[in-house]
Each structure stands twice: as structure tokens, then as C-alpha cells.
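Fold this: Diacylglycerol kinase
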Amino acid sequence: MSQVIPEKPLRVVVWSTGTIGRHAIVGVDAHPDLELVGVWTSTADKHGKDAGELAGLGRELGVRATTDRDELIALRPDCIVHGAMTDDRVFESIEDLTGFIRDGVNVVSSGPVILLHRDGTLPPEMIEAIDEAGRQGGASLHVNGIDPGFANDVLPLVMTSLSQRIDHVKVSEIADYSTYYQPVVMRDLFGFGQPLDAKPLLWEPGILTTAWGPVVRIIADGLGVTLDEPLVEEVDRRPAPRSVSTVSVDVEEGTMGSVMFRVIGTVDGVPRVTLEHVTRTDATAEPDWPTPNEGDGCYRIEITGEPCMKVEFTHHGENGDHNVSGMIVTAQRLINAVPAVVAAQPGLRSALDLGLVTGRGLVTGTKAER
């Protein structure tokens, strides 16, 4: 499928005004193929405020945020850019997203990441219920971002197009999370700042496979590989060598300060696809673990075979670090995919179902011809 170019601007609602949502407002406003028509907020104090103010644009956009779901659906937008928190309400958010497409509104969402790929994680009947809602409303749902998302689905699969033989594909995030503002994720899910004998949800058996298994499975699907079941999980948690304060949680010396985990897909017992995360709250900790070649964070793709290839992908914001720009690239991957998702067949759609997605129309000082 070639790149989709809409005949007229698509009408978009941004769902949330938090760490991803405020960047999504900016991104939709800047995109020549999109028109911002509505904004949802979960915060009563933000109800009625102009979207430009909530996004920190320094100017009004003439669109007021609302806490009223039905008011936004009644606008009949072409698509919702959904950036609301889903990590702590996975199944409730699936109900929300399914309701949107049943009501005839296409959705691009940063979560829940369990929907990154349709096979192998959720029961088939749950996926079928999403597809049926899409057929009823004539709308599609696409969940993506940067990780899980572009850095470990589209990017590695595009690289494999250069391969003669593939022995192993490894996708890694290596990052200092000290400036990552997500208190629930950092303390409750990861367990940073908690005693090492604490049992945060993420380290319970099977949870890593639920969260990041779709990454391993979509790579395998893109390569035509059937993986052994279950996927293999490996976790190495380390204590903080010194006390540090992050923007999300204080990490006292001796509490959990770093973690390296892997989700591995094997074929006949041989590792073929590996997802790895190396996450620190102190950039100087665990020097024996992988570190970025530059900056405070990177995504690394390593393909072993003929030939052997490695790409290290980094990003940083003009006025912030890699965690700020991480929210931007997550939002923009969704925003730039809107035309392709609107044009896609109804139901749950992964990156394998979409055509070329680019930053068309976003080059400074230019205007893409329609």
C-alpha cells in the first residue's frame, strides 16, 4: 500500500491533555492534513480551557477541552488521537477504544500496548470483538508509539529488507529514566525506589510477555516465523548504589535503581527475536550493562546473520532531554499515521497493515501539494 494522502483535512479529536496529549495537540495543529476539532480531558479544572493554553502554545486554538465523551463523539471526527494513560487500566481502556470504533470513529492510540499486535496475547474472542465493533462502525483501531512501536516494529523490519540470512533480531531500549515523568509506571509498575523484595506487577511471571510480547510477535509475524510457546522472560534488578531523586520517585540507596529485562522468542529452542530493556534511574549505575553511544538514551537494532547490521536510533528535544522527545515521537507516530488508519479496513490494525507513514507536510517553510 502506498502512502495515503487525504483529499481534505481530516477532523481530529485529541483524547487527553497529559504527557502525550499536550504534544498531540501541538502536532495536530501543525499538520496540514489534519484539523483539530475537539479535546478530551479527565481533569475537571481543565474543562472549558482552550487547547492552545493546555498545550503551552501561547495562543488560543478556538477549541475548548471537555470532560464529556458524548459531546466529542457527536462532532463525528474522522479520528481520535488517544494518549490517555492505559497502563493501570488495560481492559477498561480496551472497552473505551472499542466503543469509539463502534461509534464510527477511527482511533490511533499509544496504548494499551497489548494491542500492538493481534495474535498470541489476548484471547481470539477479544480480538474478534474489537474487529466486530470496527465492522459495525466502519472504523479501525491502531495502537503504536515509539516503544512498543516504531523503534521495535517498523524500524527493525525495514532493516531486515537488507538481509540475505537472518539468525537473530534484537531490539533494545537503553535509557536513563530519571527525567521520565510517570509516577505510577515508575514506582508501582517498575518498582523503582522500592525494596528489592517488593513484588511490583511488571515482574510477576507472564506480565512482561503480556506487555512486550506483542513486539516479539509482530517481528516474527513480519518475518514469517512461528515462535515456540511460551516466550522466555529474563529479569535482572539491581539496587541503587547511591540515593537519587527522579522527577517521578525518590530512589534511596539499596532500593531498586536499575533493571534489565528481556522477552525472547525462540524457534525450536533457538533465540530468534529478542526484546531487551536496560533502564536506569542513575546514568552512572551498572556500567557493565549496555550504554548508549551518545546521550542519555537510545534504541538499538542488532541483526545477526548475513550481513550483520546494527543501528542506534537516538532523539532529543530542542528544549528537553530524550524523555521529553520520547513523548513527542510517540505522539507524532500516531498523528502521522492518521490518514493511513482512516483509510484502513475496519477493526484492529497493526503496523503490518499500514502503508508508508511519513512526516509529509511537516518540512519547515514548505507546504505539501495536496
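The first helix runs from residue 21 to 30. The chain has a mean pLDDT of 94.
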